[in-house]
Design goal:
Layout: E1 2-7, E2 16-23, E3 26-34, H1 38-46, E4 50-53, H2 63-71, H3 75-79, H4 84-91, H5 94-103, H6 116-133, E5 144-146, H7 149-155, H8 168-184, E6 188-189, H9 194-198, H10 201-217, H11 226-235
Parallel strand pairs: 1-4, 3-6, 4-5
Antiparallel strand pairs: 1-2, 2-3
Helix pairs in contact: 1-6, 7-10
């Protein structure tokens, strides 16, 4: 099996990818790249069994009628979201609320925060993938799944606090986090890319996304139940690991 992790930014700069090949209870990092364009992502998707993308793959269902109502001057669908509680339904998806309930982490809003630009790019990439490989279900039941490295780290018992950034403290924390990952996952061969990983939180997140993609491929993530299934198909679904790191390389 080959998994791909994508840490998607709004532009080519700071977009990272990590490909991992799995065999015989081992895993090897075979490709690691930073500042990656859409074409490279689509090409890597084509040669991977499962891709985990760290970016929302959809928007809240409530947002479309709200915007349409505003555009067409129809008051009812807009007034349904009067007040902070109503606006939260426009800002957060079912999967965001599920993730918060399970992990305590609050994902950034795809419609009201700085994730909007990466999500627009992600939608374009999904369309490019669909042209070549067919549409990929937003609930992750195909070959593309939404992942959240911060949540994966927390579920796997790794301290992911304060490692993002270019300063000395952040770099030191990233180095410690990578060392903890290596200790917990001795079956993972970084292929000589350890120094690159300690210098880029984007590359590190791409690796975590690729590891999470393995859990998705093995159906070892928390899947939407009946109450969440319909929204997951349209809004997307964050796949939270439902297994330990030790279980990932098992067949």
């Amino acid at each position: 099996m080959k998994t791909l992790g994508v840490d998607l930014a709004a532009a080519t700069k700071k977009t990272a990818v990590a490909a991992i090949e799995w065999s015989d209870h081992q895993a090897r990092l075979t490709h690691l790249a930073l500042d990656v364009d859409d074409q490279h992502i689509v090409e890597l998707f084509g040669s991977s069994d499962m891709t985990g993308v760290d970016c929302p793959v959809g928007w809240p269902d409530a947002l479309i009628p709200f915007l349409t109502g505003h555009l067409d001057n129809i008051a009812a669908p807009v007034l349904e979201h009067d007040g902070i509680a109503g606006r939260r339904l426009l800002a957060y998806r079912d999967t965001d609320r599920f993730c918060t309930a399970r992990t305590g982490l609050i994902p950034l809003s795809v419609s009201a925060d700085r994730l909007a630009h990466p999500a627009m790019r992600c939608a374009v990439i999904q369309a490019k993938i669909a042209q070549l490989h067919g549409p990929q279900p937003r609930d992750g039941s195909g070959r593309l799944a939404e992942v959240y490295p911060a949540a994966s780290l927390k579920i796997w018992g790794l301290n992911g606090r304060g490692y993002k950034g270019r300063g000395a403290p952040e770099s030191e924390r990233l180095g410690l986090l990578l060392a903890a990952l290596e200790e917990r996952a001795p079956w993972l061969d970084l292929g000589g890319d350890r120094d690159r990983l300690t210098s880029s939180d984007d590359l590190f997140d791409a690796v975590i996304a690729s590891l999470t993609a393995r859990a998705v491929a093995r159906r070892r993530t928390l899947l939407p139940d009946i109450a969440h299934a319909a929204a997951a198909r349209s809004e997307g679904w964050i796949h939270l690991p439902g297994c330990t790191l030790d279980e990932l390389p098992l067949q």
